[in-house]
Amino acid sequence: MPFFFSKKPASIAQDLSLAGGEASRPDAFEVELLGHLDTLYSVSCRMTKSSTEAEDLVQDTIVKAMRARRQFEPGTNLKAWLLRILTNTFINRYRRGGLERDLFEGPDAEPLTDGWVGATTMRAMRDPETQALSPLIEAEVQRALDELPDEFRLAVILSDIEELSYKEIAEAMGCPIGTVMSRLHRGRKMLQKTLREQAVLLGIVSEEDGKKSSEAPADLGAYRKRKLGVA
Amino acid sequence: MSAARQMDDCARLDLALTAYVDGELDAAHAVDLEAHMRQCAPCFERVALMRASRMSLRRTTSKRCPEALRVKLMTGMASERARKDAKDAVAETQPSLIQKRYVAGFAAAASVAFAVAGYQNHRATAGTVAEAPREPVQQGTLAAATMESLLDDLVAQHAQPLPPETTNPEDLPRFDPFVGVPVRRPQFQAQAFPVDFKGARVHTMRERRAALLQYTVRGGHRVTVYLFNSQAVPVQKAPILRPRMVRERPVYVGHISGYSVVAAERSGVGYALATDLSDEESTQLVLAAMQ
């Protein structure tokens, strides 16, 4: 037991911050940073799709954040700043050379009718009570998200789950704001397509219903009432 | 409005729907779009569906950072801090250079060992832990398994001790937030033989932490004591332990890897102790510790 009677234990304790000591206690920045660990871990899991890689990614992010802490402007959005470091690290580490250039980017890349689903079908996929997807389809959400190509998945995670602004996402992903918007647009459409297929499989909506290209607007009175309820 | 005209509007507004849902559409366009949505069920539904997906995404994808990773990161942050402190010291004065560097290196080495132990434990048991809440029937078995693994861990720590984080008993209350119960140094006042406090550290086992206290008694026999939250890890009969009533209190006694192991509970604090003394002496020690 070579360490047991080691003569320097008190200073180790100080540096591990477990036993206190003025210089070694986590400061305000670190405390706030620790408050975002759940977010960083969740996002890492969704980005890497692997809990092992997610742990590595969170660790890299924290080390980088600690070393670059002087670049953070107090009073600004720390979560967005951390997610920017995390996204950058993910792209550089796991996707050397950045995200694949998407040849089909932009609103003209696909015919509008792709993923064109009738109002009835869309309504059937929702649960009016919870304002979320119907519980049956909800179970599929994670898989549907995992299936999205990286550039779309990252945009959807940062926007839908973490509520970053387009500007913040653009900074995190290193692309123009217009690109963020079109990635989100297409990403969500792909997501809905997968979920609709699931809804068809489950018999929540019929195949034919899903393929209908348009349908007459529903009863306007009832429609407006619903609208008031939602807005 | 003709169907063709409406399709045209939808085509024009398609991308705007995305920006609208994200609150990134300017006011003028938002008004325009809301007017369209009042007439167009598919666009209205598309917005509603986008919002519903978002709600479900948030609900299904949030995860808690595993406790082992959190500990590892906190330790990492501490050594990062120590590294910075050491750097600052270099800038300040020359003499403190060696001292600080030495400390920083030491801290880094210690934190690695500390983190790895927690991490491997976590990995090895991830499966069992995840299964736990689903099987209320096996609650008893599971608790026994937890107690047993705690004792295994205690014996491993006793056999190959890590360096203490502190040798000052006054530091122990600082362990409280990590362990979740008050950490007070057992005085062993009722003991006939003298007990020396050698040091303490916070120890991570699986998702939980305990305070690990190191003592020597009577001619150098080492004693390792765990103080833990007995609500998280109930002290109860594990297959390797025999229950005994001593002074109207249940005490669990057994042997693991040749060491005498004793566990007991008082006021929400669990005590587990490993020694190379006799069962009787260990039992007396744990009772004295709980005084």
From TrEMBL, chain A:
The keyword DNA-binding applies. Residues 36-96 form the RNA polymerase sigma-70 region domain. Keywords: DNA-binding, Sigma factor, Transcription, Transcription regulation. It holds the Pfam family Sigma70_r2. One of its GO terms (biological process) is DNA-templated transcription initiation. InterPro entries: RNA_pol_sigma-70-like, RNA_pol_sigma-70_dom, RNA_pol_sigma70_ECF_CS, RNA_pol_sigma70_r2, RNA_pol_sigma70_r4_t2, RNA_pol_sigma_r2, RNA_pol_sigma_r3/r4-like, WH-like_DNA-bd_sf. One of its GO terms (molecular function) is sigma factor activity. Residues 140-191 form the RNA polymerase sigma factor 70 region 4 type domain. SUPFAM superfamilies: Sigma2 domain of RNA polymerase sigma factors, Sigma3 and sigma4 domains of RNA polymerase sigma factors. Gene3D superfamilies: 1.10.1740.10, Winged helix-like DNA-binding domain superfamily/Winged helix DNA-binding domain (1.10.10.10). Belongs to the sigma-70 factor family. ECF subfamily. This is RNA polymerase sigma factor. It comes from Chondromyces apiculatus DSM 436.
